[in-house]
Amino acid sequence: MPFDTVDSDLTIVPVASKAELKRFVDLPNRLNAKDPNWVVPLMYERMAALTPKTNPFFQHADVQMWLAVRAGRDVGRISAQIDHLATEEGAGKTGNFGMIAAEDDPSIFSLLFRTAEDWLKAHGCDRALGPFNLSINEEVGLLVDGFDTKPMVMMGHDPRYAAARVEEQGYAKAKDVYAYVCDPRAALPPVVVRRVKRGLPEGVTLRELDMSRYDEEVKALTDILNDAWSGNWGFVPTTEAETAQLGKSLKDVLDKRLILFSEIDGEPAGFIVLLPNVNEAIEGLNGKLLPFGWAKLLWRLKVKRVKSIRIPLMGLKRKFADTLRGQVVPFHLMNAGRDAGLALGYDKFEFSWILEDNAPMRRISEAMGAQIYKTYRIYEKAI
């Protein structure tokens, strides 16, 4: 039930019904209606992502969502979640907040964060970290730079005032993550050209995703991803169910020519995923696929084709990372992905997200001619 706050007109409502979840999903569309760079997400996709039956994240996490309501109008939202797969160092327990969106009013942000923090503390947490929407393996961070361009698929977009409102609640920067962008038609730097022209070392091969062995491919990708990212800050393993669900949700978008594996002596060693930017295709659909949205979406994806692409996932098993053969694999994967994307007519690539202190990935991205154009901030606070 809603409860009163210091502002008698402002109440908090725990999301408990499908109708309340729809309000929760739709709120940012109203808040950002005047932002020319806001892309209205597909309602059915957002509902599925926040529903336990359709998102495997809920199998290993506790999640609660709330709406802030003033005079009968939804004015803010937030989530709190505890991922039981998260590995931690030191004492204490970290919980997460996410899905933060609200009108530009400090009292609304205060109520939302106080509610989320109280829930986390009641569940044994002494630190809040976020925003994660809902997992660190999904949308992460609050946009703090790069407001003048539209977000790519599975990347967030926030109003300029949001960072200041969050920081007013006592949150400080924990880590920044970057989105890099490049024109794949531009000439590659000489150092990259030299590496690629040498060809693949003996025993190293590249291949496309094999759709006839999809389940095995999902397992191989998940194994590489979890091994490659295991040393990264904030690492939480991705389950096979989550990888498979992602593939299922993107089945109309995935192109096997844009998902590449590298094998070393016959062992799956690395991979790269290039994902057509669905956000470019859903503009103007207003989040709806009926009555004609499906036809428009498929025509834009399959006939007109979008022109931008995002690289959300790339990894190399750690045991190969320090070998001579392994060190050239990321360059060959990115070059092969670049060539495949160019052949299919894509002219804008985004590499995201990349941790600010992930020096190897930043060097590779910059060697491919990419530059930072968006910054997302992850915040923390002792609670």
Low-confidence stretches: 1-6
What percent strand?
A: 25-35%
Largest sheet: 14 strands, mixed
Tell me roughly what share of residues is in helical segments: 25-40%
Strand count: 16
Order of helices and strands: EEHHEEEHEEEEHEHEHHEEHHEHHEHE
Q: Separation of termini?
A: 24 Å
Q: Structural class of the secondary elements?
A: alpha+beta
Average pLDDT: 92
Structure overview:
It is a single chain. With 383 residues, the protein is α+β, with helices and mostly antiparallel strands. Helix content is 33%, strand content 29%. The chain has twelve helices and 16 strands. Strand 7 and strand 8 (139-140) form a beta hairpin. The longest helix is centred in the last third of the chain and has 20 residues, at 324-343. Mean pLDDT is 92; it is low at 1-6.
